[in-house]
Design brief:
The structure is a single chain. The two termini are about 30 Å apart. A 3-stranded antiparallel β-sheet has the order 1-2-3, with no helix packed on it. By secondary structure, it is of the alpha+beta class. The radius of gyration is 14 Å and the shape is flat.
């Protein structure tokens, strides 16, 4: 069975999802090299909803991956 994958640009309505994905991935990925304070700084500075909205307004692109009609993040426990 062949799987259809699609990548598309996230929109402002998906900012909470982007924040959730960052929180679910940054800690496990970087906790061995960054302190808890550093991680909290990154979430507050880069991944707050306000910061993400500003990044989008400034032209930053966020991409989401879909398998068929479903976002692949829907399989994550967030």
């Amino acid at each position: 069975m062949q799987t259809s994958l699609t990548i598309r640009q996230a929109d402002a309505a998906e900012i909470p999802l982007i924040k959730q994905l960052a929180e679910a991935t940054w800690g496990p990925t970087y906790q061995s090299i960054l302190s808890k304070e550093q991680l909290e700084f990154m979430f507050d500075t880069i991944y707050s909803e306000e910061a993400l909205a500003q990044q989008m307004a400034d032209g930053q692109t966020f991409l989401l991956l879909f398998e068929g009609e479903s976002r692949l993040d829907s399989r994550l426990t967030l």
